[in-house]
Amino acid sequence: MKATKYLSLAALALMGTLASCQSDDEAAVSFARPDNAVGINVTVGSLKGTTRSNAIATDDTQREFNLGDQISVSTDGQDPVLFQCTDADMQTWAEAEAGKFLLWTQNEMTFKAYYPATNGTSMTAFTLPADQSTEAKIALADYMTRQQTFYYENGTDITLNLERKTARVIVRINSFTDQYDEGQQTVSNVRINSQFSAIADGNGQGDITEVTPYMQGTGGQGTSYTALVVPGYDDSGATFITLTDALNNTLTVKGIPELEAGYSYTFNLTVGKNTIQVQSVTVTDWTGETLAGGQATE
């Protein structure tokens, strides 16, 4: 027999959980939480220090979810339930829709979860947003999933350790050559290319996607541009970074490098009138810790 998906209103009435009528014309309904309802806690990060939707953060807040963030959680025989972050400071979660619960129906159950809970996203499918120009938009590119088995005898709550499926690319304007006069040392229209446009069954799919990154700075020295991209193997013939200098020259960095999910890659650039020089590439985990041998091939 298929397991019960949600408690119906009739079942709640039999349990005596309907609130008393407020008037002859109006009634308030209170959905009591069943004893076998599944509660969730969420951690982010595995050995690589992956994080949540604070995709641009470099401190402890990158490990946290924001108020209102939603995660889809499902288990065998039951419809998925959206859980929403109700307290960002305490990192607490509750069902997003009143009266809809995941229920423990046997001692051992396997749960599947993914973030962000947006249309077209699932445990096996994700389309990379091309516009990541704001904190809210880059958060939607922070695709994470997790499948874990839990036991009811350990309590009704489960702790899901989500794993990141994208890589972070940071392009930092390190310096300009002396070819530029004072006031000309700025860039604009920075774009970062992802080797793939989507993820399907854990693999990159689709064509190269041009991403509008999140900018921190005014376009001058020290400005950084952050994008989340679909990991892939190196493609030496593809354009990786494009930008426009103050003289309206379009400059490019060729060659999309091999990138791995859960890692952050910082490319420090020196901008000249005719070329961009990649001065250094640093590879870190998402906690900001530089990895051993963390210099990528330029």
Q: What can be said about this structure in brief?
A:
The protein has 298 residues and is mainly β. It is built from two helices and 20 strands.
**Radius of gyration, CA atoms, in whole angstroms:** 23 Å
**Spatial order of the strands forming the largest sheet:** 1-8-7-5-2-3-4
Secondary-structure content class: mainly beta
CATH superfamily of the largest domain: Fimbrillin-like
Number of strands: 20
CATH class of the largest domain: Mainly Beta
Main beta sheet: strand number and arrangement?
A: 7 strands, mixed
Binned, the helix content reads: under 10%
Count of helix runs: 2
How would you describe this protein?
- There is one protein chain.
- The longest helix has 6 residues, at 9-14.
- The chain has two helices and 20 strands.
- With 298 residues, it is mainly β.
- The chain has a seven-stranded mixed β-sheet, with no helix packed on it. It has a six-stranded mixed β-sheet with strand order 14-15-9-18-19-20, with no helix packed on it. The protein has a four-stranded antiparallel β-sheet with strand order 13-10-16-17, with no helix packed on it.
- Mean pLDDT is 83; it is low at 1-29, 46-53 and 290-298.
- The chain starts with 8 loop residues before the first helix and ends with a strand.
- It has helices at residues 9-14, 135-139, and strands spanning 39-44, 70-75, 78-87, 92-95, 108-115, 125-127, 144-151, 157-164, 167-176, 187-194, 198-200, 203-205, 209-211, 214-216, 224-229, 235-245, 250-256, 263-271, 276-285, 290-295.
